[in-house]
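ping. complex inputs:
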Amino acid sequence: MPETTVDTVACVGAGVIGGGWVAHFLARGFDVRAWDPAPDAAAKLARLVDAAWPALTQLGLAEGASRDRLRITETLAEAVEGAGFVQESAPEDLPLKQKLLADIDAVTPARVVIASSTSGYGMSEMQVAAKTPERLVVGHPFNPPYLIPLVEVVGGRLTAAWAVEQAGEFYRRVGKTVLTMTRDVPGFVANRLQEALWREALHMVANDEATVEQIDLAITDGPGLRWPVQGPMLTFHLAGGEGGMAHMLDHFGPSLKSPWTRLQAPELTPELRDAVVAGCDEEAGSRSIAELVAERDRAIIAIQQAVGEARRG
Amino acid sequence: MPETTVDTVACVGAGVIGGGWVAHFLARGFDVRAWDPAPDAAAKLARLVDAAWPALTQLGLAEGASRDRLRITETLAEAVEGAGFVQESAPEDLPLKQKLLADIDAVTPARVVIASSTSGYGMSEMQVAAKTPERLVVGHPFNPPYLIPLVEVVGGRLTAAWAVEQAGEFYRRVGKTVLTMTRDVPGFVANRLQEALWREALHMVANDEATVEQIDLAITDGPGLRWPVQGPMLTFHLAGGEGGMAHMLDHFGPSLKSPWTRLQAPELTPELRDAVVAGCDEEAGSRSIAELVAERDRAIIAIQQAVGEARRG
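pong. complex structure:
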């Protein structure tokens, strides 16, 4: 059985994402070893951890957590020595990731899980050069990794089930929300959704349909206020009024044919309609539409107050 | 010059959106007249206003605001009589909207602005049957209209500039964030962005790539936590680290070619790159990347606390 007691984490790559992981693991009370070949990496990492620390302190540090428990190493081998978990956050470049993961694999004991922060490559395509690919998984965070809970976990064709399971357990132990995928879909779940929105936004700027500022305003003062409390599915469950998602799809279904975005919608077959309705019912659980409305309303008011205060500083 | 002092608002259509507008206008101290031909409309509207009232009371009611100032009328003509602003929120059906807007137009004094809550039809295609189409505008809200600030305002080919301006002024006076578009793009801004995400989500369910619940979790615990404080553009401005959006686009630009969503991205020309970078700089204004990071971090923590409390009730 794989090792499950981790007290040292290795972070390979210490840019915005890798550095954010460093801050998170330090705050959770781990010893952290970081390696990054960029000449100015150490200074940037120090600034990043310093910038994150007030937020992490406010959230509550684990016992013994300290910025002094970070060691920046000269070599990759020193970084992974004694580490119980390795988080790779190198630039998004497939050949680079393939080589780096093989290099990490070569110097890390075989039962230690190595997770990649990749935004969208599948592990199947990244693990090809590694000698022990079964412990390689994707562990995809969101910026900043020290605050956004979501981590998407998925293995590649050569990944063992125990490695996926152990990565999920580890992330949960350090306070993350883990979304484990059984299929290796490019971009995983959250980035596919976010990327669709981002590409539509770029098209709008490219075509002079909206400015950068209008796009941000449309989200921050519009649907963005709903999404931290109810995702796109439950949001539309409530758009259907007392009839819920069933009414919403039966009523707005034709809008899927409208040229409201450059992305073509799938055919709204009876099967898809029923799957979405059933999924919403399952997610809502015992909460009635009226209770979900009350929950949403309380949250939106509090979110607006929170954002207002954060902006005032 | 058009009338600008409004004390009575007519709401035509009183479903989820129309009813939400009714609640909002009542809370802001207006007399509201609502008309909806559905047989159970009055009872549904009463429940909707009752459900919204605690939130509106918490936010602070305008002086004299009262649920008793709602009158449900038997006819459309009675609803618009004496109204200084008309908000139409009928089902999303083009022929129905064309006929209804013409009917409203026929019984409403010529200088009163009539706004449609349509989710995506252009006013140019909706105003065709009206005799005085120059005062017809789109005033597109988000559910629930009594809490989400955004209203997208845009005229059609036959709409006069004064009507667009007056609608914007009126919405701002009642506490809305107004996004005025100069071009009539299907779906406006926010729905184009939201719809791209929604369609990708439906594709994922249709292809068994993710469940309804995973999709919601990916947003609520992932990028959804950032969007109320910084929209997609400023979010990626911070993903670029100290180099901002310029570094982000130069670094992640190739990802636009990745199959991370079914939506093809536009070509990242130097012009598009520069426009996005300049737009972010303009939006950030005097705030440095470090200040934006601090603002984001404060907001995300507060948002998570707010959502947690709202869920606990």
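The first helix of chain B runs from residue 16 to 27.
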